[in-house]
Design goal:
mainly alpha, 2 domains, Multidrug-efflux Transporter Regulator, Chain: A, Domain 2
C-alpha cells in the first residue's frame, strides 16, 4: 500500500462527506478550519482535502456547544486549547460553576481568596491541589480557583464538616486534570465530575 493510500485510509472524508454527516454547509466548516478549531486536513496527490472521523466529531461538538450552550467560537477555541475536546456535559457543569471564561484566568485577589479560605478546613486547600481542582502549590490561584474555594467554604459553613461525620476528601479514584501544552504549566483541567463529587 503506497503512502497516498495510507493518507486516504486515515482521512476518508471529503468536504461533501462532512456536509452530509454533520448537516452544516461547507462555508461554515471551512470557517471552523480557518479558526483553528478542526484537526488538520490532508491533501491527496490530486490536491483534494481529506478529513478524519475525528473532524466529523469535532464539527458536531462545536455545533452542539454553539446551539445548546450558546458558546461563541472564541470560548470554544479557548476550551480546546486549555482542556481539549471535553464532553458537553462537563462543559455544561463548568459553565454552571462559573469556571468557563473567555480569557485565561487572572490571578485571584486577596479579597476573593479570603471569602472562601476562612471557612475551609485545614487540609481542604491541599486536597483541592492534590486532586488537580485548583492551581498546584507554587502557582498563583486564579479567580476561577477562588470561586471554587468559596463554594467549598460555603459547603463547610453549611455544616458539611469532618466533625459532623462527612469525609475529608473524595476518593483517590477521581481523575486528575490534564495540563495544557504551551501554557507554562498553567490551565489545568477540572473534571466536572470531581467538582460535583467533592461538594456532595
Amino acid at each position: 500500500m503506497g503512502p497516498s493510500a495510507l493518507v486516504v485510509e486515515g482521512h476518508p472524508h471529503r468536504m461533501r462527506d462532512l456536509v452530509r454527516l454533520t448537516g452544516l454547509p461547507a462555508p461554515t466548516i471551512h470557517f471552523y478550519a480557518q479558526q483553528g478549531l478542526l484537526p488538520p486536513a490532508r491533501k491527496t496527490a490530486g490536491n483534494q482535502a481529506r478529513y478524519t472521523d475525528a473532524t466529523v466529531e469535532r464539527v458536531v461538538w462545536i455545533r452542539t456547544l454553539q446551539q445548546h450552550l450558546h458558546l461563541p467560537l472564541r470560548t470554544i477555541r479557548w476550551v480546546l486549547e486549555r482542556w481539549g475536546e471535553l464532553p458537553v456535559d462537563e462543559i455544561r457543569a463548568l459553565q454552571a460553576l462559573g469556571s468557563l471564561m473567555d480569557e485565561p484566568d487572572p490571578a485571584a485577589t486577596a479579597e476573593e481568596l479570603a471569602r472562601g479560605l476562612e471557612a475551609l478546613e485545614p487540609t481542604d486547600l491541599d486536597d483541592l491541589r492534590e486532586l488537580g481542582l485548583v492551581a498546584p502549590r507554587g502557582q498563583p490561584l486564579t479567580s476561577s480557583d477562588a470561586r471554587l474555594i468559596e463554594l467549598v467554604g460555603a459547603v463547610r459553613a453549611a455544616g458539611l464538616t469532618t466533625a459532623a461525620g462527612f469525609p475529608r476528601r473524595v476518593p483517590r479514584s477521581v481523575p486528575r486534570r490534564r495540563r495544557a501544552p504551551g501554557r507554562g504549566g498553567a490551565a489545568p483541567h477540572p473534571r466536572a465530575g470531581a467538582v460535583a463529587e467533592h461538594h456532595r
